[in-house]
Amino acid sequence: MGTPERIKEVAGKVTAARENGYDVVVVVSAMGKTTDELLNLAHQITPNPSGREIDMLLSTGEQISISLLAMAIHSMGYSAISLTGAQGGIFTDSVHRRAKIVDIKPVKIIEKLKKDNIVIVAGFQGIDYEQNITTLGRGGSDTTAVALAAVLHAERCEIYTDVDGVYTADPNIVTEAKKIDSISYDEMMELAQLGAKVMNARAVEVAAKYNVDLTVQSSFHDVPGTLITREAKDMEYIVVRGIAVQEDEAKLTIQHLPDKPGIAAKVFKKIADANINIDMIVQNVSEKGITDISFTVPKNDLSQTREMLEPFLREIGAAGLAADENMAKISVAGIGMRGHSGVAARMFDVLARAGINIEMISTSEIKISCVIEKRFARQAARALHKEFKLEK
Predict the structure, then answer these.
(1) Vertex 263, ends 261 and 265: CA angle to 5°?
(2) Domain limits for position 303
(3) To pair with 174 at 20 to 30 A between CA atoms, which of 35, 117, 198, 319?
């Protein structure tokens, strides 16, 4: 949706689906860098704009897109109507900039479909129960699309993007990365949460909950994409499905925290109340009634976390808070890891041979993640991709 020419191409794909006999609902994002430009504009006004007004501002980007796409479809002789998230019946909680969908009442969408319209809905946005416009955060248009597909009982949900599917690693980092034909919800969710940018983790979570099959495919090239679906038996034979790199991690260490029951709960409740997502947590062995706790947050949340947490830590008797924003997370994921041992040993050995120190480790049934220095992240990704032969 970056240019008028691209909008016309999207209109062509949409009308082709209509010609094939489908009722079509389209969810679109803002054009090009519109969202970034609007954020930059806000910060030229004030360094700390209110969340409510940011949402009011950012939501205009998608409204430009939906109206222009409707015009393009009209010019091709088809009926189409654009709807904002609120008009489409998308209700959210009241957490500005990171709202979550709580309900969808697609009355107007269904009404317009029955009148032979192609319905175009603004992604990334909704409305809370006090009639405030809200936005869903990064990848919010994916989440909007999947949620609408679920509530409308769509035959399928197609996600068009600037890549032609899900790859074994970011091709910009690992040139040997290969496109994956099909991947399970669980694997895709892990990879998305671990830094793979092609799909939003919340969107995949909704797809898994409501059993919505997704395809991720190129909006530029007419080639088969990647199917995201329930796991199949043959998926279990591939031990590692993909490598993910997240280069925007920050590590914080609470120093000399009193080691008493309930202290950690108070600290992390304080962080949760600020709507800051924590990833890994490591607590050192207690000595003489004190301990250190390290955890990671997105780099963008580092300043807010420090500003909120430092005075609170002084109140409860901690010595201080150390931070390192030059961290990255490297991860391997695959449902085949459930039935295969030795993946962690191979991963740690690869990093050791490359001279890369592991600072934190987190595991689940189908993934292993390590926090390392950011300067080693891409080297680590390439070495692990080669170790697990993902290029084949």
Answers:
(1) 95
(2) 244-387
(3) 35
- For residue 188 the two structure tokens come to 């895709």
Contact between 231 and 335 under an 8 Å Cβ cutoff? The reply is yes
Burial of 356 (0-12, 13-18, 19+ CB in 10 A): buried
> What would the pLDDT profile of 299-332 be if each residue is shown by its tens digit?
989 999 999 999 999 999 999 999 999 999 999 9
Q: Are residues 190 and 275 in the same domain?
A: no
Residue 46 neighbours by CB under 8 Å, 6+ apart: none
3-state SS class at 255: strand
> Looking at the chain, how many residues does it have?
392
Q: State the Cα–Cα distance between residues 338 and 184, nearest whole angstrom.
A: 14
Q: Strands 281-283 and 80-83: what pairing?
A: unpaired
- DSSP string spanning 73-112? HHHTT--EEEE-TTTTTEEE-S-TTS--EEEE--HHHHHH
CA distances from 272 to 94, 185, 303 (A): 15, 26, 15
Q: What three-state secondary structure class fits 154?
A: coil
Q: What is the distance between the alpha carbons of residues 282 and 292, in angstroms, rounded to a whole number?
A: 8
Burial class (CB in 10 A: 0-12, 13-18, 19+), 268: middle
pLDDT digits (tens, 9 = 90+) for 361-379: 999 899 999 999 999 999 9
Q: Which amino acid is at 211?
A: N
Q: What is the pTM of this model?
A: 0.81
Query: In terms of domains, do 103 and 152 share one?
Result: yes
- CB-CB contact of 160 with 218 (8 Å): yes
